[in-house]
Request: fold
Amino acid sequence: MSETKRRVISLRGPGQVNEDNKAAEAIKPGHLTNIDGSGNLIKNTTTSGDLSKSFALERDEFGSDIDVAYAVNDVVKIGAFAGGDRVLALTPSGQNLAKGARVEADNAGRVVVYSSGSVIGRTIEAVNNSAGPGDARVALEII
Reply:
């Protein structure tokens, strides 16, 4: 009998979960999120400053996994994570993340190798997504 390992966004630490906002755009579990001026949830567009470490979570209570995106106007389940918590985040094509690499947010709700923004975490695994073709998942520890 084979065992299927459940894929989740929250890897360690529960995060502060809420379902307070609707999506203003399509959002995948693992996207770093923020709230727009109308009170709707969007993919994070800020790369520096005091960033919220809030990630969209999967809707496991509905049987949805981490590959099922939220559509516009869906209520989004998010987790706000603190230092030491671990999450499965998204990283774009073109990124080659070594284990232990410090990461920052890009302007589309994903994490990239730190260059000049605000460090939000460090990778706990190596992920080479330099050839893409799309986003990949990377486990990281929030700092």
Q: What stands out?
A: The two ends are 39 Å apart (CA to CA). The chain is about 0% helix and 40% strand. Residues 10-80 form one domain. Residues 48 and 117 are 4 Å apart (CA to CA).
